[in-house]
């Protein structure tokens, strides 16, 4: 049997769903994530925590008898889109969510630097 693995990164947890090609959900699992809220409205998570969450969820699937070679598609989603740098040293990575508060901050900063009359 072939499977599709779907992962959703949320504010408080990562959710994982394993489904077959008929979209029947065979496993649904989650792993808690640490989210840090800054005084200026920033919201941050560490990508290494996402990796740990993914390993926690998939290890449950492997223990239930799912063979990793049977997964033919993997998709990840969240409330943001990011480029995640990969390194052998997980402690050197950190990441800010591109959430609404960050977008408002960016839009305000851009408008200050480049007023509409200059565009």
From TrEMBL:
A Pfam family that the UniProt record links to this protein: FGGY_N
E.C. no: 2.7.1.17
Location of the Carbohydrate kinase FGGY N-terminal domain: 3-93
Taxonomy, superkingdom: Bacteria
GO terms for MF: D-xylulokinase activity
InterPro entries in UniProt: ATPase_NBD, FGGY_Carb_Kinase, FGGY_N
Gene3D superfamilies for this protein: 3.30.420.40
Keywords, in A-Z order: Kinase, Transferase
Protein family per UniProt: Belongs to the FGGY kinase family.
Descriptive protein name: Xylulokinase
């Amino acid at each position: 049997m072939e499977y599709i693995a779907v992962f959703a990164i949320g504010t408080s947890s990562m959710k994982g769903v394993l489904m077959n090609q008929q979209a029947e959900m065979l496993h649904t699992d989650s792993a808690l994530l640490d989210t840090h809220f800054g005084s200026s409205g920033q919201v941050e998570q560490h990508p290494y925590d996402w990796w740990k969450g993914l390993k926690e969820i998939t290890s449950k699937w492997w223990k239930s008898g799912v063979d990793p070679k049977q997964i033919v598609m993997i998709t990840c989603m969240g409330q943001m889109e990011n480029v995640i740098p990969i390194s052998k040293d997980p402690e050197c990575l950190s990441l800010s969510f591109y959430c609404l508060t960050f977008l408002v901050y960016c839009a305000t900063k851009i408008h200050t630097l480049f007023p509409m009359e200059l565009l």
